[in-house]
Amino acid sequence: DAGVIQSPRHEVTEMGQEVTLRCKPISGHDYLFWYRQTMMRGLELLIYFNNNVPIDDSGMPEDRFSAKMPNASFSTLKIQPSEPRDSAVYFCASSPYRDRGLSGYTFGSGTRLTVV
Amino acid sequence: GDSVTQMEGPVTLSEEAFLTINCTYTATGYPSLFWYVQYPGEGLQLLLKATKADDKGSNKGFEATYRKETTSFHLEKGSVQVSDSAVYFCALSSYYNQGGKLIFGQGTELSVKP
Asked: Is B97's pLDDT higher than 90?
Protein backbone atom coordinates (compact mmCIF):
# COMPACT_ATOMS: atom_id res chain seq x y z
CA ASP A 1 0.00 0.00 0.00
CA ALA A 2 1.38 3.40 -0.98
CA GLY A 3 -0.11 5.11 2.06
CA VAL A 4 -1.81 8.49 2.02
CA ILE A 5 -0.54 10.53 -0.91
CA GLN A 6 -0.47 14.31 -0.79
CA SER A 7 0.52 16.75 -3.48
CA PRO A 8 2.32 18.99 -3.90
CA ARG A 9 4.94 18.55 -1.16
CA HIS A 10 5.81 22.23 -1.27
CA GLU A 11 3.84 25.17 -2.57
CA VAL A 12 4.91 28.80 -2.69
CA THR A 13 2.33 31.28 -3.87
CA GLU A 14 1.64 34.96 -3.79
CA MET A 15 -0.97 36.51 -1.57
CA GLY A 16 -4.37 36.58 -3.26
CA GLN A 17 -3.77 33.53 -5.41
CA GLU A 18 -5.85 30.37 -5.26
CA VAL A 19 -4.16 27.31 -3.80
CA THR A 20 -5.35 23.72 -4.15
CA LEU A 21 -3.96 20.91 -2.05
CA ARG A 22 -4.64 17.31 -2.99
CA CYS A 23 -4.97 14.06 -1.12
CA LYS A 24 -5.41 10.42 -2.05
CA PRO A 25 -6.42 8.30 0.97
CA ILE A 26 -5.64 4.66 1.49
CA SER A 27 -7.98 2.47 -0.49
CA GLY A 28 -10.83 1.20 1.66
CA HIS A 29 -10.53 3.90 4.28
CA ASP A 30 -13.89 5.55 4.85
CA TYR A 31 -12.72 8.56 6.85
CA LEU A 32 -10.56 11.40 5.58
CA PHE A 33 -9.21 14.26 7.68
CA TRP A 34 -7.51 17.55 6.87
CA TYR A 35 -5.19 19.06 9.49
CA ARG A 36 -3.12 22.22 9.63
CA GLN A 37 0.08 22.47 11.65
CA THR A 38 1.79 25.69 12.71
CA MET A 39 4.25 26.54 15.42
CA MET A 40 1.81 28.88 17.09
CA ARG A 41 -1.33 26.76 17.04
CA GLY A 42 0.00 23.23 16.81
CA LEU A 43 -2.09 20.60 15.03
CA GLU A 44 -5.61 21.72 14.13
CA LEU A 45 -8.36 19.60 12.61
CA LEU A 46 -9.93 21.56 9.77
CA ILE A 47 -12.56 19.18 8.39
CA TYR A 48 -13.29 15.50 8.07
CA PHE A 49 -15.31 13.32 5.71
CA ASN A 50 -17.06 9.99 6.10
CA ASN A 51 -17.86 8.14 2.88
CA ASN A 52 -17.11 11.34 0.92
CA VAL A 53 -19.59 13.40 2.95
CA PRO A 54 -18.30 16.30 5.10
CA ILE A 55 -19.16 15.53 8.71
CA ASP A 56 -17.58 18.36 10.68
CA ASP A 57 -16.10 21.50 9.16
CA SER A 58 -16.11 23.55 12.35
CA GLY A 59 -12.33 23.81 12.21
CA MET A 60 -12.25 25.55 8.84
CA PRO A 61 -10.91 28.98 9.70
CA GLU A 62 -13.05 31.05 7.36
CA ASP A 63 -14.91 31.12 4.07
CA ARG A 64 -11.71 31.36 2.11
CA PHE A 65 -11.18 27.67 2.88
CA SER A 66 -13.18 24.94 1.20
CA ALA A 67 -12.78 21.17 0.94
CA LYS A 68 -14.31 18.58 -1.32
CA MET A 69 -14.24 14.84 -1.70
CA PRO A 70 -15.77 13.99 -5.07
CA ASN A 71 -15.00 10.28 -4.72
CA ALA A 72 -13.50 7.79 -2.30
CA SER A 73 -9.99 8.17 -3.67
CA PHE A 74 -9.54 11.93 -3.88
CA SER A 75 -9.98 15.07 -1.82
CA THR A 76 -8.98 18.70 -2.24
CA LEU A 77 -8.49 21.58 0.14
CA LYS A 78 -8.74 24.95 -1.53
CA ILE A 79 -7.78 28.38 -0.24
CA GLN A 80 -9.06 31.36 -2.22
CA PRO A 81 -7.71 33.98 -1.86
CA SER A 82 -4.62 32.92 0.05
CA GLU A 83 -3.04 35.10 2.74
CA PRO A 84 0.39 34.99 4.41
CA ARG A 85 -1.19 33.75 7.66
CA ASP A 86 -2.26 30.61 5.81
CA SER A 87 1.37 29.54 5.64
CA ALA A 88 1.56 26.17 7.38
CA VAL A 89 1.96 22.46 6.79
CA TYR A 90 -1.30 20.84 5.76
CA PHE A 91 -1.76 17.15 6.46
CA CYS A 92 -4.28 14.70 5.15
CA ALA A 93 -5.05 11.50 7.07
CA SER A 94 -7.36 8.57 6.53
CA SER A 95 -8.85 5.85 8.70
CA PRO A 96 -10.96 2.74 8.16
CA TYR A 97 -14.51 2.98 9.43
CA ARG A 98 -14.89 -0.06 11.56
CA ASP A 99 -11.76 0.25 13.61
CA ARG A 100 -11.03 3.94 13.54
CA GLY A 101 -11.13 3.91 17.30
CA LEU A 102 -8.48 1.22 17.46
CA SER A 103 -6.05 1.80 14.65
CA GLY A 104 -5.77 5.54 14.67
CA TYR A 105 -5.05 7.39 11.49
CA THR A 106 -2.53 7.12 8.67
CA PHE A 107 -1.07 10.49 7.78
CA GLY A 108 0.34 11.76 4.53
CA SER A 109 3.70 13.52 4.37
CA GLY A 110 2.04 16.91 4.24
CA THR A 111 2.10 19.96 1.98
CA ARG A 112 4.23 22.87 3.15
CA LEU A 113 2.45 26.02 2.01
CA THR A 114 4.18 29.37 1.95
CA VAL A 115 2.18 32.45 1.00
CA VAL A 116 4.33 35.49 0.29
CA GLY B 1 -15.10 17.66 26.05
CA ASP B 2 -12.33 15.14 25.67
CA SER B 3 -8.80 16.50 25.94
CA VAL B 4 -5.16 15.47 26.14
CA THR B 5 -2.41 17.27 28.05
CA GLN B 6 1.28 16.60 27.49
CA MET B 7 4.34 17.86 29.26
CA GLU B 8 5.84 20.88 27.62
CA GLY B 9 9.00 20.63 25.63
CA PRO B 10 11.56 20.80 24.39
CA VAL B 11 13.08 17.87 26.22
CA THR B 12 16.81 17.55 25.73
CA LEU B 13 18.60 14.34 26.68
CA SER B 14 21.97 12.73 26.15
CA GLU B 15 22.19 9.51 24.21
CA GLU B 16 21.35 6.41 26.30
CA ALA B 17 19.40 8.45 28.86
CA PHE B 18 15.99 7.36 30.14
CA LEU B 19 13.00 9.09 28.60
CA THR B 20 9.61 9.88 30.09
CA ILE B 21 7.06 12.10 28.38
CA ASN B 22 3.97 12.60 30.50
CA CYS B 23 0.48 12.47 29.05
CA THR B 24 -2.83 12.74 30.87
CA TYR B 25 -6.30 12.74 29.41
CA THR B 26 -9.89 13.66 30.12
CA ALA B 27 -12.56 11.60 28.42
CA THR B 28 -15.99 10.12 28.90
CA GLY B 29 -16.31 6.44 28.28
CA TYR B 30 -13.33 4.25 27.51
CA PRO B 31 -11.06 5.82 24.94
CA SER B 32 -8.25 4.24 22.98
CA LEU B 33 -4.90 5.93 23.55
CA PHE B 34 -2.09 6.53 21.09
CA TRP B 35 1.38 7.93 20.74
CA TYR B 36 2.37 9.39 17.39
CA VAL B 37 5.85 10.49 16.35
CA GLN B 38 6.73 13.16 13.81
CA TYR B 39 10.27 13.21 12.45
CA PRO B 40 11.51 16.45 10.89
CA GLY B 41 9.85 17.17 7.57
CA GLU B 42 7.51 14.20 7.79
CA GLY B 43 3.92 13.41 8.72
CA LEU B 44 2.80 11.81 11.96
CA GLN B 45 3.36 8.08 12.35
CA LEU B 46 1.63 5.80 14.80
CA LEU B 47 4.20 4.71 17.38
CA LEU B 48 2.08 2.63 19.75
CA LYS B 49 -1.42 2.28 21.10
CA ALA B 50 -3.49 0.79 23.91
CA THR B 51 -7.20 0.16 23.76
CA LYS B 52 -8.17 -0.71 27.34
CA ALA B 53 -7.09 -0.15 30.91
CA ASP B 54 -3.79 -1.75 31.96
CA ASP B 55 -2.84 -2.49 28.35
CA LYS B 56 0.78 -1.76 27.52
CA GLY B 57 1.61 -0.55 24.05
CA SER B 58 5.18 -1.00 22.83
CA ASN B 59 7.21 -0.42 19.70
CA LYS B 60 10.85 0.35 18.85
CA GLY B 61 11.82 0.24 22.53
CA PHE B 62 9.11 2.71 23.55
CA GLU B 63 6.40 1.71 26.00
CA ALA B 64 3.27 3.26 27.49
CA THR B 65 0.71 1.80 29.88
CA TYR B 66 -2.95 2.77 29.91
CA ARG B 67 -3.65 3.84 33.51
CA LYS B 68 -7.33 4.47 33.99
CA GLU B 69 -7.02 5.29 37.69
CA THR B 70 -4.64 8.16 36.98
CA THR B 71 -5.97 8.88 33.45
CA SER B 72 -2.43 8.73 32.14
CA PHE B 73 -0.50 7.22 29.24
CA HIS B 74 3.13 8.21 29.81
CA LEU B 75 5.68 7.38 27.12
CA GLU B 76 8.95 5.78 28.25
CA LYS B 77 12.14 4.48 26.70
CA GLY B 78 15.05 3.05 28.60
CA SER B 79 17.86 4.29 26.37
CA VAL B 80 17.26 6.98 23.77
CA GLN B 81 19.24 7.41 20.58
CA VAL B 82 19.97 10.46 18.47
CA SER B 83 17.58 9.03 15.88
CA ASP B 84 14.71 9.35 18.39
CA SER B 85 14.85 13.13 18.07
CA ALA B 86 11.35 14.08 16.95
CA VAL B 87 8.06 15.54 18.15
CA TYR B 88 5.84 13.12 20.08
CA PHE B 89 2.06 13.48 20.22
CA CYS B 90 -0.26 11.78 22.67
CA ALA B 91 -3.82 11.26 21.41
CA LEU B 92 -7.10 9.65 22.31
CA SER B 93 -10.02 8.35 20.32
CA SER B 94 -13.43 7.64 21.73
CA TYR B 95 -15.73 5.74 19.43
CA TYR B 96 -18.80 6.91 21.28
CA ASN B 97 -17.79 10.51 21.53
CA GLN B 98 -16.96 12.93 18.78
CA GLY B 99 -17.39 10.24 16.17
CA GLY B 100 -14.08 8.57 16.90
CA LYS B 101 -12.03 11.63 16.08
CA LEU B 102 -8.48 11.63 17.32
CA ILE B 103 -7.90 14.31 19.95
CA PHE B 104 -4.22 15.31 20.04
CA GLY B 105 -2.07 16.83 22.73
CA GLN B 106 0.10 19.78 21.83
CA GLY B 107 3.18 17.69 21.13
CA THR B 108 6.51 17.38 22.95
CA GLU B 109 9.75 17.96 21.12
CA LEU B 110 12.58 15.60 22.02
CA SER B 111 16.18 16.38 21.17
CA VAL B 112 18.81 13.71 21.85
CA LYS B 113 22.44 14.81 21.85
CA PRO B 114 25.37 12.44 21.14
From this structure: no
What number is the average pLDDT over the span B28-35?
Answer: 88
Instruction: Count Cβ atoms within 10 A of the Cβ of residue A42 and give its class: 0-12 exposed, 13-18 middle, 19 or more buried.
Output: middle
**Which chain A residues in 71-100 lie under 8 Å from chain B, judged by CB atoms?**
91, 93, 95, 100
- Count Cβ neighbours within 10 Å for each residue of B39-71 and write b for 16 or more, e otherwise: eeeebbebbbbbbeeeeebeeeebbbbbbeeeb
Instruction: Look at residue B41 in the predicted model and tell me its pLDDT.
Output: 86
As averages over each run of 10 residues, the pLDDT of chain A (116 residues) reads: 91 97 94 92 90 92 94 97 96 78 82 97
CA-based nearest distance B27→chain A, Å: 14
Q: What is the pLDDT of residue A97?
A: 66
Round the average pLDDT of chain B to a whole number and report it: 92
Cα of A101 to nearest chain B Cα, Å: 5
**Taking a C-beta distance cutoff of 8 angstroms, is the pair B47, B60 a contact?**
yes
Residue of A nearest to B43 (CA): A109
Ramachandran assignment for B2, one of left (phi > 0), alpha (psi -120 to 50 degrees), beta (any other): beta
Distance CA A70, CA B78 (A): 47
Burial classification of residue A1, based on how many CB atoms lie within 10 Å of its CB (0-12 exposed, 13-18 middle, 19 or more buried): exposed
